[in-house]
Amino acid sequence: TQILVHMLHRLWAAVVSITVIWTSVRLFKTSSLPKRVSRFAFLLLGILLLQIALGALTIISVKAVELTTAHVATGAFLLASCVVLTLHVGKVYNIRFQRAYSLSTKEAAA
């Protein structure tokens, strides 16, 4: 099962990498966005490269605590950066994000 977990981690890493690269390319090609958004695309690519390097070093070092912690922290930073980018682009295009739907007591009872 440990091998399965490692392979699923790598598969998901590939999905995230492709998505970040695709998003960055789209941001570079969209000329109507402010220049700071294209700078943010460079930041995403830089964080992604750091994440990949830390992942490789984590494997090579046989999961050294410092490298593993840096790898996890960088992944969290990449996720947070993507959320901030989404909110920023939403603000540029005046997109309103819906609040999470919560059930009222009447609806939950039904």
Task: Based on the model shown, name its key terms.
single chain; 110 residues; mainly alpha; elongated
In short:
The chain has 110 residues and is mainly α.
Overview of the structural elements:
The protein is mostly helical and about 110 residues long. The chain is about 80% helix and about 0% strand. The protein is built from four helices and no strands. It has helices at about 1-30, 35-60, 65-90, 105-110. Helix 1 runs antiparallel to helix 2 and helix 2 packs antiparallel against helix 3. It is elongated and about 45 Å long. About 5% of the residues are buried.
Q: Helix coverage percent of residues?
A: over 70%
Judged by helices, strands and strand pairing, the structural class is mainly alpha
What is the approximate shape? elongated
Poorly predicted spans: none
Please compute the radius of gyration using only Cα atoms: 18 Å
Order of helices and strands: HHHH
What is the number of helices?
A: 4
The chain-level mean pLDDT equals: 88
Total strands = 0
N-to-C span: 42 Å
Q: How much strand?
A: under 5%
Largest sheet: none
